[in-house]
Design goal:
Blueprint: E1 8-9, H1 11-16, E2 20-26, E3 37-39, E4 43-53, E5 56-70, E6 77-91, H2 94-98, E7 105-108, E8 114-115, H3 116-127, H4 138-143, H5 160-171
Parallel strand pairs: 6-7
Antiparallel strand pairs: 1-8, 2-4, 3-5, 4-5, 5-6
The protein binds zinc ion.
């Protein structure tokens, strides 16, 4: 099994053949995504199944990766795991898109080959949060430790649990 995914595909042909693709796409190869991430290291694991439901050609896919987004509070990088699946119905007109009966998003196909990379990139861009933010209170951490603002913390006293432990002790 090859890890390499083709970029340009004919989705109708793949659907006729009930093809299945799986492999990886380099994060660095997705140019539009570059504006939203602070590091383009790493891969996106992709699985795509092509099928037909009656006459309707359908693409069902999933992707898994971890992106480095910029936290909008502290402006430091944060890793943002992404694991999503999508289902697309191939249509050739808006009318067909309206008439999609099965539960999937329309994918316009005008006979020209479709870029699998762009398709995956679209799904990722749709899933990106508007306002990425660390789950913990990262500003509190940085303001209480100004000297350490630029670097990653190598200091155990920054551990929020040590504060909790102290509180517990004094409470007794
Ligand atoms: Zn933050």
């Amino acid at each position: 099994m090859s890890d390499k995914l083709p970029d340009l595909i004919d989705p109708m042909l793949f659907a006729e053949r009930r093809s299945a693709l799986s492999g990886v796409i380099k994060i660095a190869s997705l140019e539009r995504l570059a504006d939203f991430i602070v590091s383009n290291d790493g891969d996106i694991k992709v699985e795509v199944l092509f099928a037909k439901h009656g006459k309707q050609a359908v693409i069902a896919g999933s992707l898994k990766t971890s992106l480095s987004l910029e936290c909008q509070s502290c402006l430091q990088g944060m890793s943002w795991p992404l694991d999503l699946s999508f289902k697309l119905g191939i249509v050739s007109s808006l009318q067909e898109a309206d008439q999609l009966k099965i539960d999937c998003e329309p994918l316009m196909f005008n006979g020209e080959k479709v870029s699998l990379n762009e398709l995956i990139e679209d799904e990722i861009l749709l899933a990106l949060p508007d306002y990425p933010k660390h789950e913990y209170d990262c500003m509190l951490k940085h303001s209480s430790k100004d000297a350490n603002f630029d670097g990653d913390s190598q200091n155990q006293t920054n551990n929020p649990f040590s504060v909790l432990a102290k509180l517990k002790k004094t409470g007794e």
